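User: Before I run my own analysis I want an independent prediction to cross-check against. Here's the chain; please return only the structure tokens and, at the end, one sentence I can use as a sanity check.
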Amino acid sequence: MSDQRQRTGKAAEDLVAARLQSVGWTLLARNARTRYGELDIVALNRSTLVFVEVKAAVEGAFYGPERPILAVGPAKQRRLRRLAGAWLSEAGRLPPHRHLRFDAIGVTYDRAGRLVDYEHLTNAF
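Assistant: Structure tokens:
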């Protein structure tokens, strides 16, 4: 992955984390490593444990789908479920929660790095 793509991805994750916290979510983990890979954000939204996948893109890029959120297809969803299961088994003591869900958030920037679009799919899969 290029340095620019890494910077864009990190900027998107930082933006998403700040937005989630600003509306009262509690971040439990960022870039949570498991034996299968990494989860972008694990958070608590009231009584729901949420695994958040963040996808970022630059407007007019030649790679990837039309909207970043569309990159969370069936294969990625299966992988995220496996990652979440591993994280839950490895995490130890968790805050009380009644529900569990997966959200997907797509962030699009223009070529100057300004936010163009922010799309949050709750209970995406």
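Sanity check: The chain has a mean pLDDT of 94.
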